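Hey, sorry to bother you again with one of my protein questions. I've been puzzling over a protein and I'd love to understand its fold better. Take your time with it, there's no hurry, and the full record follows here:
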Amino acid sequence: MTSKFGSTLLQYDRVSSTNDLASELAASGADEGTCVLAREQTAGRGRQGRSWSSPAGEGLYLSLILKPEIKVAWSSVITLAGAVAVAETLRFPFGLPTDIKWPNDVLVSGRKLCGILVESAIEGERLDYAVMGIGVNLGQASFPGEIADTATSLLIETGRSIPAEVFIVPLLERLEYWYRTATTNPDRVIVRWEELSSYARGCPVRIESIDGAIEGITDGLAASGALIVEIANGEKREIVSGDVRIRALGAQG
């Protein structure tokens, strides 16, 4: 499909998690670019320990094995590159006006259409390998109650049902391009992410993490991929993890 990504494509009807399977393959020496694709996940997961709804035949559920020669501190830029690739795929071949919520939730009409989870194996300061899991809602006509108001799909937004094997072709091309860019010219990924995200600058946010919650106004991304937030006293903080929510000015929530 591309020069490397997807050259080894392993397809399954049903797995617990494509990330788990790809991690096992990576630990056993599988090549970079190996792609695990499933029609259904029984235990798909997203960021912050959340589950990812993965009904059979209604989404794209894939994981890619990556072996970048970069320091661990810079690995978050690869996550941003994944979000850029998905957002561009939805925009150009399929005409959807996408947005990105930091770091890697791809939204359409304010609702989540794609989630990305990157999990890494680390040795010292070196990244041994990473697995990028991507879930894209393609054919769902509706969602279960707990995410009914926050999720959407390509079918809901366009009226078109796109098979996973069709969507994956332009996606892998963009994933490979932006991944290579992340490892050779990470600043370009930062710039493109900011261009595609309404959250990047001037957005009032509340960020909740294991260290507590802070509120402020976004001021772009740091070179490392961290989200810069200016809090009430004018101090600027770099956020490396947490759950971002838009808030009304002067209000919490």
